Fold Coenzyme A biosynthesis bifunctional protein CoaBC.
Amino acid sequence: IDAALADGPLKGKHILVTSGPTHEPIDPVRYIANRSSGAQGTAIATALAALGADVTFVAGPADIAPPAGVRVVPVETAAQMLEAVQTALPADAAVFAAAVADWHVANASDSKIKKDASGLPELSFAENPDILATVSQMKTGRPGLIVGFAAETNDVIANATAKRLRKGCDWIVANDVSPETGIMGGSENAVTLISDDGAEDWPRMGKDAVATKLAARIAQVLVG
Ligand code: CTP
Ligand code: CA
């Protein structure tokens, strides 16, 4: 890590960032997943590291290269992501930008399912652990500032506000990912920051700019 960067305002602060999708196996060659490029999470980790934070970056499988100068923990499934997050704690702050699959395949097969076997496969699903909620509701050792994301296609603010209260995180970064916004898979984001103080609309800007602004806000809270 560049010495000048390591001397930024977040020097000595450990910040955990989750990013990317998770892959939940159906069999050794197939999986279910959420759409996620990992771009926003990667940009946030980069921005935090640029302010001098010691960043643990827990990353699901994505094509984007992880940032330099952070501790990268690659994972595949939601269960592995939860375990990696718990191992990485304690942290001063945590940003949960990953698009975690809500379910895993309960009857995943150890061997490749063949299409000529006995008709169509029947998949059954089981719910994944909610990593953000689990960490937000920790009785001891909870990070002082926890930031979640809410990608919604309708009733964005109402859904995200309810999500913040349900999970118990401090902030939610909400965005509208309806196909017509072009945000999914794009380089820009238009977010609303929801906290105890209410909802603050940020103008549409590059994902890197969202990350820089969010990192600055986090630094304000952690170091005043
Ligand atoms: N999240 C998580 N673990 C999960 C699911 C979600 O940590 N198993 C986190 C995401 O990283 C994000 C936030 O929770 O920061 C909101 O994710 P989202 O999918 O919008 O919330 P859900 O509670 O899964 O609700 P929905 O039914 O809308 O998918
Ligand atoms: Ca979800």
